[in-house]
Amino acid sequence: MDAISEMPLLEVERLQVEFDTRAGIVHGLRGVDLSIRRGETLALVGESGSGKSVTAQAVMGLIDVPGRIAGGDIRWKGQSLLKGDGPRRAKDIRGKEVALIFQDPMTSLNPLITIGAQIGEVLQRHLGMTKAQARIRVLELLEAVGIPAPPRRAAQYPHELSGGMRQRVMIAMAIACEPQLLIADEPTTALDVTIQAQVLELIAGLQETLKLSVILITHDLGVVAGLCQRVAVMYAGRIVETGLADDLFERPSHPYTQGLIRSTPRLDDRLERLVSIEGAPPSLLAPPRGCAFEPRCPIAEARCGTEPPLAIVHAGASAACWKPSQPAWRDVPASAEPAPVS
């Protein structure tokens, strides 16, 4: 049997999330379609504000007032998490079957409780362990994520640990119940390059050991090239391109994806300066009716004022563009694959 099952473990269909603000309604997600299979690693890539973290929070059932899910569906193993008794089911699987690693461990961990007690709480709440059982399991988890001297570390508070150590604690909490899906939301934010590589290597090792499915939320294409099998590119609350990682780097179809790859530094190409995508993403208070990337796209034309569907471009790849695969940036080759992080 292949490591990746044919049946999707998680399916997100036309998902819409809105937030009420004093300025008006922010349309955070505008019809997101996404799926991941067992044993698969999917990268969710895009600029800040594109909707990556909101997608993760929606899957985890963490969209609270002033936010709301305004449409679409989320299915876990074929069963809706939004309709019927779905909300109850979403609460039951959160932390046990689906786990989330947050961006900033310092704000996610309770500064007044030892890390051993915080990991132990997860085990007691979801698995019904006694304090004694949880204490033993906590030490095993700390050792599994590469934290030295587990008994001493378990008795410490978050501020007594380095940034890399705190991120490892977050990973230990996430895998405590041996979930089937791990969502890592920018797990290497604010870490130096060496520690980033260690954390990513740890996640990859745990995935292989525990047979996890992983959604890696990142803006770093180097990370994607090194770890992920498939990529979904987000822009202005929508998925604009999906495909196998190798294919996407070799022949990106959407102009936005081409621009992201074009602006990524490479070790084998010495440029005096990086070339960025001009302009800024549109306001989601009043999202455009057509292609959201149109104002920044060098090959935009009249029909781009109408929203393009996410359509198949070639085997295993889709793009929401009226002119898919046409080179949009001619000064740098579209096939400029970034060097993977190692």
TrEMBL record:
Coiled coil location: none
GO MF annotations, alphabetized: ATP binding; ATP hydrolysis activity
Membrane topology: Peripheral membrane protein
One of the record's GO cellular component terms: plasma membrane
InterPro entries linked: AAA+_ATPase, ABC_Ni/Peptide_Import, ABC_transporter-like_ATP-bd, ABC_transporter-like_CS, Oligopep_ABC_C, P-loop_NTPase
Superkingdom: Bacteria
Residue ranges of domain ABC transporter in the record: 10-261
This protein's UniProt keywords: ATP-binding, Cell membrane, Membrane, Nucleotide-binding, Transport
Compartment(s): Cell inner membrane
Keyword Secreted: no
One Pfam family, short name: oligo_HPY
Main location: membrane
One GO BP: peptide transport
Family affiliation: Belongs to the ABC transporter superfamily.
Name of protein: Peptide/nickel transport system ATP-binding protein
Source organism phylogeny: Bacteria, Pseudomonadati, Pseudomonadota, Alphaproteobacteria, Hyphomicrobiales
